[in-house]
Every structure is written in C-alpha cells, then in structure tokens.
Amino acid sequence: MAQPQHINAMKQDFSSLLNLGASSPIAVLGLAAIVLFSVYRALWSRNAGNPPLPPGPPAEPVLGHYRIVPQDAAFRRYADWAKEYDTDVLFFHSFGTKWVVLNTLAAATELLDKRGSNYADRPRFVMFEEMGWSPTLTWLRWGPKYQLHRKVLQPPFVKSKVAQYTALQRREALRFCLGAIDHPEDWLTAVRRFSVSIVLKIAYGIEVEGRDSPWIKLAGDTAHAVGKSGAPASSIMDRIPATRYLPDWLPFMERLRYAHTWRPTIQNLTGLPFEATLKTRAAGTENNSFVHTRMGHWDANKAKGQVNDFSLEDIKGAAATIVIAGNDTTAASLMLLVLYLMQNPSVQHKAQAELDSLLNNKEENRLPTWSDLPNLPYTNLILQETYRMNPLSPLGIPHASVADDVYNGMFIPKGTIVYPNVWAMCHDERVYERPGRFWPERYLPEEEGGNGEPFPVGNFGFGRRICIGRALAENSLLIVLATMISTLRIEWPLDEEGKRTPFEPEWSFRGQAIVMPFKTSITARTTTARSLLAAELEALERHTEE
Ligand code: HEM
C-alpha cells in the first residue's frame, strides 16, 4: 500500500506511452503537452510568492522524480536523502503529482496529528474504483461520506468494545497452534485461517470451516489482487481520470486491464459474503456481526419510513473494509512473529520462561488466557519490537493536504500527497541503538538491563486517518503470540543434511513490506501441549457457537 509501487506503476504507464509513441508521434506530443501543462498548473503556479518547497534530490525535466526514486525499498532511500539534505521533510513531483515524505516522528506528529484536519484527505483512487471496490473507508476522500463511514465503523473497534471479540480471537489462536502442530509443513494455511476467520466472523458472522474453506482462498486471491495492483493513486487513471473511459486494450492501459481482470475477485469479496449474510438473515438467523447489526438498523428505518443515510452499498463496502484492512495485515504480522521467534532462540526461551513461571505450567498445565496478558511484559515487548523492526506499511497509507501549509519555513501546497516514513522513524539511530537488531529489552529502563528506548509509533498511521482496527489487531497478535510461546517450539528447519542452518528469507518491499513464505520447523513444546490446545478449543467452540 505504500509508495515504491507508485513510482513503479508510473514507470509502467509512461513506458507504455512511449511504446505507443513509436506508432503515433502526435499522441506522444499531445500527452507531453498535457503532462507539461499539468506539472506547471499543479506545481509551479501554486508556489509563486510562497516560501520554498521542502528540499529533495534534483528532478529531471518533464519526468520530475519518476526515475530518481527507486522502485524497491524507497523508504530506505528517502531516509538517506533526509540525512543528505539535512531535513525531516522531502519534496518530490512527477507528472503533476507532488508528494512529501515525513522522515521523523516530530514532523509526522506536527503535521498529521496536530494539524490533522489539514491532512485528513486521501488522494483519489480511480483505479480502485475501476477494480470494483464499493465505498471503502480506507480509500474515501475526506468529506461527509468519509465521516459517515468512520462514524459507523469505528465504534465496534474502540478499545473498550473489542473485548466482545476476545473469545473468538482466543479460539482462533488455539486453532492456529493446533493447525501448526498437526500440519507443520502447511503452517501458512494456519496463519491465513487465523486472520480471515476473525474478520469474516466480525464483519458477517461467517464461520470458516476447516483448512480447505473457500473463504481462505478468496481472501488469498484478494490479497494477491490488491498486492499487485500497485500503490493507491498511482496509475494513469489516477493521474488523468478521463483515461478510465479509454478501451482497456490500448497498449498503455495495462493497469485498466488489470483492474478489469481482477474486478470479479473484488466483487466476489465484497459481494459473496454479503449475499450469504443477507440469506442467513432472510432465513431468520441473527447474530451480532457488523452486517447483521447494520441491516437491523436499515430495516428498522425503512419500516418507519425514515431515510437510510447509510445505504446498502455503504454497508457492503464497510463490511468489506473490515476484511480488506484487517486480514492481510494480521496474517503478515503473524508471519513476522514466527520469523523473529525462529531467528532469535534466546528471545523465545526468555518468553517461554516468563510464561512458565506465570502459569506454573508443569503443575497446573494450563494455557495463557486474556487475564494473563498484562502479566507478560516480555511477550508484549516482543510484539513492540516486531512492529518496530518491520512496519508493514513503511510509508503508511498516503494522506493528502486539504489546504496550503507551511512547516518550518517550507511550503506544502494544497493537494500534496503525504507519506510518513514510518520505517525511518523506527530505525532512527538517534532513537534506537543498532536499529537492525531484534532486541525486545531495548524498551526496558537501564536499571533493568535495557536502553529505555520508546515504543515505536506510526505503524497504525496518524491523525484523523489512524487505523480503526489497532486495538483488535493488537489483541489478536498478543493472544496468538502468548499461545504460541506456551505451546510451540519454533526452530530453523532441518536441511538435507539434517542440520538447522540459519538463512535470511525473502522479502517484498514493493508497496507493503512483507516477508515471503519461508520454511520453519514447528513442533509441540511439551507432551501435553496438543491435548491442552484440543481440550480448550473444544470448550471455546461451544462458547463461540452460541
Ligand atoms: C497489524 C495489523 C494492522 C496494521 C499494521 C494496520 C495499519 C494501518 C495503517 C498504517 C493505516 C493507515 C493509517 C493512516 O492513514 O494514517 C490503517 C488504516 C486502516 N485500518 Fe488498519 N492496520 C491493521 C489492522 C487492521 C484491522 C484488524 C482492521 C479492522 C477493523 C483495520 C482497519 C483499518 C481501516 C478501516 C483503516 C482506514 C482508516 C481511515 O482511512 O480512516 N486495520 N491501518
């Protein structure tokens, strides 16, 4: 969801335009004129008489920074430029689009939090509209529709309300560990099941039955469709919206083709669970899922002859938001937890010791519950360190400025796209000693052997657009982490010679920063772990089915 892909996408769009030019020089000249005009109008005409723009590397004529910013791991390059130009805000432009990158927590807090109302907008996501997304909070521009969606979606996820989902989350945590013990070679299915089961149940009341559930596949397909669609607001349709009406077979419209190819998948994700839920309601089944609750309000208003501000399309889109925003992020975070525990056996052992001493495991033989979590400080530090090591959206989800602004004598024009460089903030050597090292103790005070470093900030965004699901996500991750530490032994896999050999897995830094599927060895940590998991799962299954 972050920036590197938008540069990449522009490259694809632009090189396709150049290909077209081979057969149609007039088209190239026309497009060049449009680009030059939009660059002038969007950028320089607005800057006349204002303070200077923030610094940044020199741009190329016409193309601006499109060839300057790397496609991969741009967040690292931005962090280097911030040092080189001795600034916390960098400025870039390309084809009339302007963007700034905020490289310190101070800049992000000042602009996105304190001046939040000026940075609550998003760029327009025309390509996502073409892909068939219903109104979706994450992509909505600032305005009454956005505010209505946020007002409806936020309440069930505030900290005081997410307790209603704890039984579900614990059940899925137990299922994950049991799945990983029973099918260690297929631990990723257990990961995907864990994340999608939680969001489908909350959004629609749908149960994911078994490892072969079609819902797991649909969630995977959607993740693929979104993951490869490029960064939001980066396609030629986003730059020049009228191009969405061009035929998609034109050589330079490959992203429109992509949107149309994946449209059925997106429509399935937003449509199928919604239709299934409407059917269960029509058959008289009620549950407390988001859709059932909203449909209850909708029916009641309709019966009273009152206008429904929140339309059926809105309910459909808002429910899909829960799945889109909450599924992949949770799955990717759980993969990171497995990775860091595997890579850092001493951390794993320390966390096991913390759990064992609390649960007195050998005598009582029980698994961690919600009431144990506040008494597991080291487990919590592991989660904080996981957030810091690899922010999933290293450049956040872009905000956009509503009006002209000046920050530390630098001009930020209206309509500028704003990327918080969360990775740079989490890896700032002035704040974190040896930031590339996974060291959960760094947050402890010095007298307890730590460095007194602050918890990372920004992984869930900033200001008015901050993630609504962070309390839910944190609960999911903490309960699954504690259950894993208690029941699983996670080690390097055995190689062909039967040795455990450390390796660095592959990563993808285009858009989101995610670890690619990797091999690991997962076994039950104690002789009773599996039976304990199975017994508690059975009890919870009865409970959550009610
Ligand atoms: C580890 C898990 C998660 C991470 C790292 C994460 C991260 C983020 C980030 C970085 C943003 C952008 C905030 C901004 O623009 O400043 C965001 C927005 C959002 N997240 Fe999450 N998220 C996670 C889980 C969830 C879950 C479980 C839900 C489900 C309810 C959710 C729902 C949303 C929504 C609806 C938005 C859009 C908010 C808006 O634009 O007003 N997220 N998230």
TrEMBL record:
The chain crosses the membrane at residues 20-40. The keyword Iron applies. Pfam families: p450. Heme binds at residue 467. InterPro entries: Cyt_P450, Cyt_P450_CS, Cyt_P450_E_grp-I, Cyt_P450_sf, Cytochrome_P450_fung. Gene3D superfamilies: Cytochrome P450. One of its GO terms (molecular function) is oxidoreductase activity, acting on paired donors, with incorporation or reduction of molecular oxygen. Keywords: Heme, Iron, Membrane, Metal-binding, Monooxygenase, Oxidoreductase, Transmembrane, Transmembrane helix. This is Cytochrome P450. It comes from Dichotomopilus funicola.
